[in-house]
Design brief:
Number of strands: 0
Number of domains: 2
Shape: elongated
Order of helices and strands: HHH
Number of helices: 3
Largest sheet: none
Helix content: over 70%
Oligomer: single chain
Radius of gyration: 35 Å
Structural class: mainly alpha
């Protein structure tokens, strides 16, 4: 489907005119039948633009799925590595593991006491 031969459309290439006012100026004085190729060309352009936008959005969606899958795989590897380290520490150095747990509980207790004293102090 091509555009009718005129000085506005040389060798099948559309000029820089794209607005409806420009279309009206180009087709002024022509019968309705003569305008049909212009309208069909604009319709094709709109369809092609819609398809391009669809491909762009589809590509973005695919990339988002890939990034999500990579993030899940990384989190699973990190969790697996942490479990292995904890298992090793528990089996090879149980006293150090108990000491670390006790130190963590002690720090949490101090932080909780400070928080409670600050919140109940103002009451």
């Amino acid at each position: 489907m091509g555009f009718p031969a005129s000085k506005e459309y040389e060798a099948g290439v559309a000029p820089g005119r794209t607005g409806s006012a420009d279309l009206a100026e180009i087709t002024r004085g022509r019968k309705v039948e003569a305008r049909q190729p212009y309208l069909a060309g604009i319709g094709g352009l709109v369809c092609a633009t819609g398809a391009s936008v669809g491909r762009l959005c589809g590509g973005t969606q695919v990339r988002a799925r890939i990034y999500y899958a990579e993030a899940v795989a990384t989190a699973q590897r990190l969790a697996s590595r942490t479990r292995e380290r904890a298992r090793f520490l528990k089996q090879e150095r149980p006293l150090q593991a108990l000491g670390m747990i006790a130190a963590g509980a002690f720090v949490c207790g101090i932080a909780l006491r400070i928080w409670r004293s600050r919140t109940h102090e103002s009451s």
